[in-house]
Structures are given as structure tokens and as C-alpha cells.
Amino acid sequence: MPDVRERVEELRREGEAAIAAASDVAALEELRVGYLGRKAELTAILRGIAELPADQRGPVGSAGNEARRALEQVLEARRVELEAGELERRLRADAVDVTLPGLPPAPVGSRNLLLRTMREVEDVFVGLGYRIMEGPEVELDYYNFTALNHPPGHAARMAQDTFYVDPESLDPELRLEPAPTEPGEGAPGPALPPGPEDVVLRTHTSPMQVRAMEASEPPILIVVPGRCYRSDPFDATHSPIFHQVEGLAVAESITLADLKGTLDEFARAIFGPERKTRFRPGFFPFTEPSVEVDVSCFRCGGSGELPDGSRDPLCKGIGWIEILGSGMVDPNVYGFVSDRGYDPERVQGFAFGMGIERIAMLKHGVPDLRKFYDNDVRVLGQFR
Ligand code: PHE
N or C, where is the chain less crowded by C-beta within 10 Å? Predict the structure, then answer.
């Protein structure tokens, strides 16, 4: 009968060597099963001690138990060692360099140049103390025309320019309050719900002049950005949908000089520090006097000539570029809001309105208004 104790020692040495050489945790587990598992030789020996001759039971038993403990210990030690190494390796392999740029670079969206220009214009006026207000795009004829001193039958109401809206077609949520009755009509009767010619897509942002004055007493300083609609063609300089920013300043001592100073400030902020403005007589039913405002050309500096002596095509050699319409608020307009403290004997003020498409085209040299609406990313991406 072979010396069982020898065999135990042999198994222990063999096991210890194999465990020391194990290269990963999986191999280690196989060795554990092989040397200490239920079917392992050492386990069988320990289980069979009772069958050994009496004088061998003690020495084999203690050698076997010792071998078992020794193998368990080296298994555990090696496991700790291997696991630490594996963690280390995984950390190194998974390392992310957070300083590297993303690959591929994520596409970044940007605001449409129109919205950006609108925000820039708003910012200038917010800096001057104006408040921003917005109003409905589906508007009552009353605010769009009547209260802005367009007498009935005025050319600006004509269907060639104006989109009329059937009030019945509106979502009830969008239904507008009936317009106030006009001044001088006698005792105000019950207001009628709007009829088929009473609702329009606003043709300018000016209706907010009246709505804003209805909502708050003087002094008032507001700018109104927003979309407007006219039955125009869609070409290089027209669009049936376009954007305006309106301004209104009314207080006790506002004069035409304030309008000039304000628009000078605006022109410098948007078109460059050297800009000047000039007023030319104009006409709007709701301002008196009315002025067309030009800004000194920011390409030629106002000379009308480019450095090579040729005619500046931007200002067409004039040295000035028309940018907006404005004027002193017509006293007749105050008549529609006199119950809110707008007494033309006491307050006066100015209003102005500019087309954002035009400002953006001039400022950035965009040759065709349709570029703002085409959604061509090659165009949009140039104005981030
Ligand atoms: N609402 C006018 C337009 O659309 C511009 C304007 C605004 C003129 C305010 C005077 C005062 O042409």
C-alpha cells in the first residue's frame, strides 16, 4: 500500500506550485475544485481515513488537514493578488481621456439669424430702460388699423395687403375680446363679437402700441418683437411672413430730439460706433410728424464711394441706408386710450418700427431674404 502521507505531501506541493502559477481568477477556481473540491484526491483521502491502518490515521489526518489549510491559504492569497492585478488592468484599459475632443464632433445647433438679430435689437432697448412686450399675431382690425388712426376705407386696410381671418374659424381659446367702441360714437353700446372683417393677421407690430397703453398708464417705454403678415410675394426682398420690432415711448416731456438720440444710440449699437442717423419726412397715419430714418452707410462710411472710387452698391452711392419708420405719436391715437391717462395735452412720445429681415440683411450682407427661411444649414451655419 503506497504511503498515503507521502501522497498528501505531494499533492500539497503540486497544488501550491500550480496555484502560484495560476494566471487568472478563473484558473484559480479550477484549481480550487481540482485540489479541494468534493471529487478531489485530497478530499477522498481525508474522507477515507477511517479505513486506513490505525497507525496511519493520525499522521495522515493531520498532514491532510494541514495540506488543506495550506492550500486554502495560498488560494486566498493568490486570489487577492490576481484580483488586484485584474482591477488595475481594467482601469488602465478603460481609462478615458476627458481632455480629448469628442469624436466625431457633435453638431451644434444655432439660432436663426433673424431671431438673433431680434434679440440684439431688444438688448439695445432693454439697455435704455425699455420693457419687452409681445402681442397677438391674430389681431383685431380695431388695434391693427382703427385705433392707429386709419380712417375707415384707408388704403392700408385693403385686402391686397392684409390677410383677413374668419373669426368663426379660430380656436375658441384664440378668440379675441370684442374691440372697445370707437370714441365719439356716442353712448357705448354692448360690444359686438368680431365679424368677418374684424379680424386680421397683424400687418405690423404697431397694434401693440394701443394694447400696451390700454394696459398701463404713462410713462411707458416698450419694445415689441414679433411676426407680421402681409399679402406680399415671396422674393428676394419680400415675404408674406416677416418680423418687426416696434418701440413706444410716452411720457410728459418726450420730444423729437429724444427720438433722434434714441435711434442714434440704436444705430451705433447695431451698425457700429461711427454711425449717424438722419430723418426724412414720411407719412404714417398714427404718427405726426412722421419720419423715415436712414443710417449712415456702414460700408462706405457715408461717402457713397468704395476705397477704389467706385460707387458703393450697398447704399447705391447715397451714403445713407433706410432702416425704419417712426414719428411722434399722433394725438388722435391717444384719443383711444384717454381713459388710461393719455391726455395729449399732458403726454407725448414717439414710436418706431423696423423690419428685422432688412436689418439682418444689411448688417450681414445677406443678398436674398429667402435665405432666412430656406433652412439650408450651409447658410444658417455661417451665423452662429
Ligand atoms: N408700423 C409701421 C410699418 O409697418 C412702422 C412704424 C412704426 C411707423 C411706428 C411709425 C411708428 O411700416
Answer: N
Whether 225 lines ligand 1, by a CB cut-off of 6 Å, is: no
- The CATH number of 113-383, from 3.40.50.80, 3.40.50.2000, 3.50.30.40, 3.30.930.10, is 3.30.930.10
Q: Which of 223, 284, 288 to mutate to test the pocket of ligand 1 (most atoms within 8 A of CB)?
A: 284
Average pLDDT in the 14-36 region?
92
**Whether the CB of 45 sits within 6 Å of ligand 1:** no
Measure the CA–CA gap between 184 and 374, rounded to whole angstroms: 48
Span of 2-6, 58-62, 183-187, 306-310 with lowest mean pLDDT: 183-187
Cα(195) to centroid(ligand 1), Å: 26
What interhelical angle do 113-127 and 356-364 show, nearest 10? Answer: 100
174 C-alpha to ligand 1 centroid (Å): 25
State how far the Cα of 50 lies from the Cα of 73, in Å rounded to an integer: 26
For the cut 60, the answer to whether the pLDDT of residue 20 exceeds it is: yes
**Residue 174 — pLDDT band, cuts 50, 70, 90?**
low
Predicted local distance difference test score (pLDDT) of residue 191: 52
324 close to 354: Cβ distance less than 8 angstroms: yes
- How many Å lie between the centroid of ligand 1 and the Cα of residue 155? 15
Q: Is 70 exceeded by the pLDDT of residue 196?
A: yes
Ligand 1 pocket, 194 CB below 6 A?
no
pLDDT at 158: 84
Answer whether residue 34 shows pLDDT above 50.
yes
For the CA of 244, the nearest atom of ligand 1: 4
Would you say 194 and 205 are in contact if contact means Cβ atoms under 8 Å apart? no
Report how far ligand 1's centroid is from the alpha carbon of 184 (Å).
25
Mutate to test the pocket of ligand 1, among 206, 326, 352 (most ligand atoms within 8 A of CB): 206
Whether the per-residue pLDDT at 344 is higher than 70: the answer is yes
CA 31 / ligand 1 centre spacing (Å): 90
CB atoms within 10 A of CB 212: 21
**Structural domain spans, the chain:** 4-93, 113-383
